[in-house]
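subagent[fold] <- orchestrator: predict structure for attached chain, return tokens only, no commentary.
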Amino acid sequence: MNQGFLCEAAGSLVVVRLTQPVTERALEECQLSVLEALQQTGSKAVLYDLTEMQPAPVNVLLYQRLLNEHVEHLDLRRAIVVPNTQIAHLARLAFGVGDYKLFYDDLEAAKRFLSDASPFSSADWSIRVTEERRLRERRSAPRTSGGRRERDRVATD
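subagent[fold] -> orchestrator:
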């Protein structure tokens, strides 16, 4: 397991566990896995278990915000379980504003929070497929010598 995360459908929700230091590539792969698992479950509920997460650089955390912007129209409901205030702060940096709630070492409370998330509609699925295709195309784009993708570099300048 070299991806740095585990993503699995568990009943009516998707559970994500970060198991290694987070990178932009790992976040992209995780996002794709989450979208695929959401399709399997038909739910909009995602549980992020960050209890094993190691602190990540701010630029990587801000990249998660960019990924979040691409799926905000899906109205996902997210619960984020953290072990301490440091990881809670990093999670807030990564997820910014949205329909999520932080839980301190309380997986059961997080699952209860997600229990009433509404299911996807057929219109949501077409948007999800478009987002997945965009991420796959982006992942295959060549990188510049600085490690950034050409399209990203132009967008941030």
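orchestrator: received. Logging for downstream: DSSP finds six helices and five strands in the chain. The first strand starts at residue 5 and ends at 10.
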